[in-house]
Amino acid sequence: MASVSSPVPAFPCNSGFISRQKFKPSRRALWVDNRRRSHLNPIRASQDGGPLQYRKLGDSDLMVSEIALGTMTFGEQNTEKEAHELLSYSIDHGINTLDTAEAYPIPMKKETQGRTDLYIGNWLKSRPRDKVILATKVCGYSERSSYIRDNASVLRVDAANIKESVEKSLKRLSTDYIDLLQIHWPDRYVALFGEFSYDPSKWRPSVPFAEQLRAFQELIDEGKVRYIGVSNETSYGVMEFIHAAKDEGLPKIVSIQNSYSLLVRCKFEGSNRAIH
């Protein structure tokens, strides 16, 4: 049971409004919650059954666990030993999908960039590669994170940046292929990371959707990437990627990874959901 300082709408569309709500669980609610936690069993799941289910990811042939393990704290809040323990526990109990990114850990810093991948790569050396679905991300447009590339003043989602990103990710992860490569955030300007409305003054020229897909096609043809997806994307961006793939015979995105929770619903339910 919980009380709030003011009513929460059934369909919250103002993220700023929701973020200001002060949830105050009662002492009894906290006691009940802790009591329930003490009786929870560890995750028990397998491909043959159990509470954790597996789903086909979009149009791909990837069967992913309904729960994936996010790793953005590995190398910042978590040591390598802790990361390996978390990875082993998750995989041993049915989770088969790991989500990482070249930008991790968070917060993004030159001193720690790529450390998450290194921790995963070291752990992966002792595991059957075909039992793990590895999802990673290439950075979108950024003027502040050029240190991620060897010779770039600005990060872009073009062929050169994508290729360099994948080659470095493969090396850090100690693997020769990526199951799912996603664009972490778009090359074009969109309202993200604290922005709730589009600012026309921030518009900039962007890499065409088809050009981005052609770069991914080359990596798929080389066997370095199996499938592609997007992250922090809008309904407009998703539809443009779909149209470009259809019109030019290029690979189709099979996934979208956006913020979506009880407190962050509007951008997905009011926009991207209309795509289905």
TrEMBL record:
The keyword Ligase does not apply. The keyword ATP-binding does not apply. Keywords: Oxidoreductase. Pfam families: Aldo_ket_red (PF00248). One of its GO terms (molecular function) is oxidoreductase activity. Residues 66-263 form the NADP-dependent oxidoreductase domain. PANTHER family: NAD(P)-LINKED OXIDOREDUCTASE SUPERFAMILY PROTEIN (PTHR43364:SF4), NADH-SPECIFIC METHYLGLYOXAL REDUCTASE-RELATED (PTHR43364). This is Aldo-keto reductase 1.
